[in-house]
Every structure is written in structure tokens, then in C-alpha cells.
């Protein structure tokens, strides 16, 4: 991980008010430790640059970080780390209980090794969360499929006067005959039944 996009309320700190402000900026600290850094302070610029970056560092209040994070996640899944400085921490007190998708925290005083490990664990956190979200989506889809199958079984039990096991077998056989997924057959049965019920 070498390419970092820094999002701030202004682009690169070209004219810091004091020298310490420059040396404590994420761009300066990351570049000093060998990272390739680009900057963005507008959404369109960030959307263009995020495709070519390994991680995003948000030098913003947590309220702004939440908004930017939600927007950037639509473009590319990358680790997002919060730059926790005296300024950003001071602006963020009201947001400490919010659900903000931040994969790690960086601070101005970190050494090269600390930055490396924070970025490494941030990347790991990001990809583990993505895997968890994918698994959750699959489970939700299975639950939804199960609902359709259970409704279709109930309809078949009622219409054909059969047990649940027999209704399941009917669904399975119909799916094999039609070369469709069982949930598709179940959905068709439920929808046709609902139409017939409405016409009564």
C-alpha cells in the first residue's frame, strides 16, 4: 500500500500559517515516510483520484468524514482512515457515537512503522467488513428465498391437501422439470395465487 488519497477541506497545504502546521499535515507526514500522496477537497476530484489509490485518509471532522466515506464507497472499496489531529478531534465531539465507517486512525506523531501497521490493519479491517457485508447479503437473500418457498408450500398444502414434505417435493420436482430455481417456481405460485385471490 503506497498510494494514499488525502481528503481535506482544502487541497495541499501550500501556505501553512506556521511551520508546525505543515509538518503535522497528513500529506507531509505520509510523504516523509515514502508514501505517494494526492489531495482532494472536492467530490469530483476525489472520485477521479480514488480509482488510483490504495487508501483514503480523511483529514476532516467525523461528521464530514461520514459524508465523504458514504460517497467514496460508491466509487471504490478502499480502506478509509481518519486523521486524528487536535483540530479534527476538536471538531468531532458531537459525532463520537455515530456509526462511521472508518477502518483505522492515524495521528501526526506516528512513526513510519506505526503508520505502516495502522494502514495494514486498516486494509485488513476494510476487507473483513466487505466480506462480512457480502455474507450478510447472501444470508438475507437466502432468508427471502425461504419465505417464498414457505409461502408456496402453504398454498400447495391448502390447494392440494398435502403435507409440507409433499408440497416441498412438488416444488422441487417442478423446479427440476422447468430447469428453474426452486425459489423462482415458488415465487410464481405465490404471485398467481395472490392474483386469483384478488379476483374472487
What does the model show?
- Helices cover 60% and strands 12% of the residues.
- It has 200 residues and is α/β, with parallel strands linked by helices.
- A five-stranded parallel sheet has the order 2-1-3-4-5, with helices on both faces.
- Helix 6 (112-160) packs across helix 8 (182-199).
- The model is unreliable at 11-19 (pLDDT under 50).
Supply database-style keywords.
200 residues; alpha/beta; Arc Repressor Mutant, subunit A; 8 helices
Topology:
Blueprint: E1 3-8, H1 19-23, H2 26-32, E2 36-40, H3 43-50, E3 55-59, H4 62-73, E4 80-83, H5 86-90, E5 104-106, H6 112-160, H7 164-178, H8 182-199
Give a nutshell description of this structure.
The chain is α/β, with parallel strands linked by helices and 200 residues long.
State the domain count.
Answer: 2
Provide mean pLDDT, rounded: 87
Fourth CATH level, the homologous superfamily of the largest domain: Response regulator
Choose one word for the global shape. Answer: elongated
In DSSP terms (H or I, runs of 4 or more residues), the helix count works out at 8
How far the N terminus sits from the C terminus, by CA atoms, comes to: 64 Å
Amino acid at each position: 500500500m503506497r498510494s494514499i488519497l488525502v481528503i481535506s477541506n482544502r487541497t495541499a497545504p501550500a501556505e501553512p500559517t506556521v511551520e508546525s502546521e505543515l509538518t503535522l499535515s497528513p500529506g507531509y507526514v505520509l510523504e516523509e515516510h515514502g508514501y505517494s500522496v494526492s489531495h482532494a477537497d472536492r467530490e469530483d476530484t476525489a472520485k477521479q483520484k480514488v480509482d488510483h489509490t490504495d487508501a483514503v485518509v480523511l483529514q476532516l471532522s467525523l461528521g464530514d468524514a461520514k459524508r465523504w466515506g458514504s460517497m467514496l464507497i460508491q466509487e471504490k472499496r478502499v480502506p478509509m482512515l481518519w486523521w486524528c489531529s487536535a483540530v479534527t478531534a476538536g471538531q468531532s465531539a458531537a459525532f463520537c457515537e455515530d456509526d462511521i465507517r472508518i477502518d483505522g486512525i492515524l495521528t501526526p506523531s506516528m512513526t513510519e512503522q506505526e503508520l505502516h501497521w495502522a494502514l495494514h490493519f486498516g486494509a485488513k479491517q476494510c476487507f473483513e467488513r466487505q466480506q462480512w457485508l457480502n455474507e450478510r447479503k447472501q444470508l438475507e437473500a437466502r432468508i427471502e428465498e425461504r419465505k417464498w418457498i414457505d409461502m408456496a408450500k402453504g398454498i400447495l398444502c391448502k390447494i392440494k391437501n398435502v403435507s409440507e414434505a409433499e408440497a416441498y417435493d412438488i416444488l422441487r420436482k417442478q423446479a427440476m422439470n422447468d430447469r428453474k430455481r426452486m425459489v423462482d417456481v415458488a415465487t410464481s405460485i405465490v404471485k398467481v395465487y395472490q392474483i386469483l385471490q384478488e379476483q374472487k
